[in-house]
Design goal:
globular
Amino acid sequence: MNKIQAWIAAARLRTLPLSVSGIIVGSSLAAPNFYNTSLFWMAIFVTVGFQVLSNFANDYGDGVKGTDKNREGEQRMVASGIISPKQMKLGMLVVGALTFFVATLLIFEAFGMDQLFLAFIFFNLAIASIVAAVRYTVGKKAYGYSGFGDVFVFLFFGLLSVLGSYFLFTKALHWDLLLPAFAVGSFSTAVLNLNNLRDRETDAEVGKRTLVVKLGLDKAKKYHLFLLVFGMLCALSYSFLHKTVWTQWMYIIAFIPMLLNIKTVLANKQANLLDGELKKVALSTFLFAILMALFH
């Protein structure tokens, strides 16, 4: 594996569709032609940047702590020695700085100089996103090691992503938007839960106290069931409240692989077999976002 391939692998491209799902949902609910706007594409760039930064930081944090030594799934670059910790830290700095620069442009594109208070709020949200991306596994008090990863994924992938992108377009919020935000947040958290189910034994061995490790296998499976069912009910409730016709419920197609995933997870007895299920739920969430954008 050459260096370019190694950096691409560290970026974990398969996680990117999930990261932009909330932006697609929030933007589409805010503006019919959202895909023709610079706001949307800058928001996509920023979200992808935060995700890549998080992936680099996760690779670095778990690598230097020895967490990835015997992990299942994709090979990690720092743990394998292909990318040194110093090089990964530099990569995090470059991605973080570029993402923050585009986030600043996005904020001033949305609010200009006339709404400085709102710009200030989003400016701080951008800083919080960078801190959250890095602190998941980096540092002595990394929240991913104490079971709080699920909370941050739900907040940043669901609430901030959906509600934040909607607000960029409209400068307003409505309570019913919590439903699609909860849906995306729940689906995204389910992907993290699958990751932690797969790595449960190795995480426990190295002291990584994910929520799965804390709950135990049986409760973690039930938690997974709750996340997906709750997310689907939230999405359906949003459509019911808006009395959309049946053709605007096309996004439920994305629920089929999620239901199959629930069956697979509940019956699973071999953790490494769950690796392929991450992609299934992540792509189903992305499909949900696309279909909701097209038919809501």
